[in-house]
Amino acid sequence: MTDAPETTVALPAGVVERYEKFSRFNSPYPAHRRGRAVDLYPGDGVGRSPLAGVVRAVRTVGCPDRPYAAPEDHLIVVDLADEWCARAGVPAGTVARILHVIPEVSPGDKVAVGEALGPTTRSGFFGQWVDDHVHLGFRPPDANPFRASGSLPLAVDAPVEPVAWDGTGRVVERGPTHVVLDGPRRDGGVGSFAALASDGGVPLDGGATHYAGGGAFESRPEPPATDGTEAAALDPGDAVSLFGTRVGTATEHGAGVDGGGAPRIEWEPVDVRANGERVVGISLFAARGDRFGVKVVCPDRGFSIGESVTVALVPSDDPIRLGVG
C-alpha cells in the first residue's frame, strides 16, 4: 500500500510578481532543499502578504545568534481563504506559515494579498549576505502548523527567462560579506523574471555551491542549446554546467504546475573563484528588471565599487558547504 500523493501548492504568478525577487532553493534548510518553501523579496522592507485568509496565530521564536541579526524571529500562521485555496489548487483548510516578518497583525485579523503584515526582520536564520524576505510555506488542513517540518510541495507559476553570462562584471554594490555585479543583463522584458542561465540555457536557483543543493526555475520556451552540454529543460540525471565547468546533476523534479516542475540540482564538488581567488559562492535567484546582477558571497575578499570581477568554477577536493546552524 502506498501513500497518497501530496497536494502541490501552485503559487500564482500574480502573487509572485508583487515582489522584486524570489527563490525556492537558495537556503540550506530542508524545506527549501526539498522544494517546499519559497522566499519572496519585497525590496522595500515591507512584509506583504502573498495570500488571503485569517490569522490563526502569531508566535515569537528564537533563532541562531548572529552579530548582524535580531535575537528572535516571528511566525505568522494564516488559515487560507477558500477562494485562495481554489486558486492555488489546494483543499479548503490549508494553512500558510510566514517567517521573517515582525507582525503588526493579530489572531482573527483578515489579510489580503499585498496587504502589509509588518516590517521584515534581519533573522539569524539566514546569512549576512541574504536580503530581507518573506519565507512562505504551506501545511495540509490536519497538520501541526507550528512544527518545523511537514510543509507541502510548492510550485511557482511564474516562468523565468534564462539569461546567458560570461562570468565577468563590475561591482555595483558592496556589503560586509558580498558584492553584486552588473551582469548578467538582458534586453527588454522588464517586469518579468529572469535568472542566470546554465551553459545549456536553464535558469538556475540556489547557493552555488556553498549549499549542498540548488535547483532550476521553470523557464520560458527558448531555442535548444547548440553546445551539446544539456537541453533547455532538465531531466533527472542530466549534467548541469556553468562557465564551461560541470557544476551539478539534476535529481528528481520538485513540485511543479500540472505535475511538472523544475528539478533539484545536487552541486558537484567545485570551488567558486573571483579574479582567481576562492570565495564562498554565488547567490542565485529570479529577479525583475533589465539588470538583476549576480551576488558573489566573499566575506574574506574586499572588491571595490567599479572593480571588474571574473567568476569561474573549478573542480575541488574540499568544496565549501555551509550547513544549518
Strand-helix topology:
Elements: E1 9-12, H1 13-16, E2 21-23, H2 30-33, E3 38-41, E4 46-48, E5 53-62, E6 72-80, H3 82-88, E7 95-99, E8 110-111, E9 116-119, E10 134-139, E11 154-157, E12 160-163, E13 168-174, E14 178-181, E15 193-196, E16 204-208, E17 213-216, E18 239-242, E19 245-253, E20 263-267, E21 270-274, E22 277-279, E23 281-284, E24 286-288, E25 295-297, E26 308-315
Parallel strand pairs: 1-11, 12-15
Antiparallel strand pairs: 2-3, 2-24, 3-10, 4-9, 5-6, 5-8, 6-7, 7-10, 13-14, 13-26, 14-25, 15-24, 16-17, 16-23, 17-20, 18-19, 19-20, 21-22, 21-26, 23-25
Question: Can you give keywords for this protein?
Answer:
single chain, about 325 residues, mainly beta, Glucose Permease (Domain IIA), 2 domains, twelve-stranded antiparallel beta sheet, 26 strands, globular
Number of helices: 3
Oligomer: single chain
Number of strands: 26
Q: How far apart lie the N and C ends?
A: 37 Å
**Approximate helicity band:** under 10%
Low-confidence stretches: 221-231, 255-260
The string of secondary-structure elements, in order, is EHEHEEEEHEEEEEEEEEEEEEEEEEEEE
Q: Structural class, judged by helices and strands?
A: mainly beta
- What percent strand? 35-45%
What spatial order of strands do you see in the largest sheet?
A: 18-19-20-17-16-23-25-14-13-26-21-22
Largest sheet: 12 strands, antiparallel
- Principal-axis shape: globular
Domain DUF8155: 11-155, 161-313
InterPro entries: DUF8155_C (IPR058817), DUF8155_N (IPR058468)
Protein name: Peptidase M23 domain-containing protein
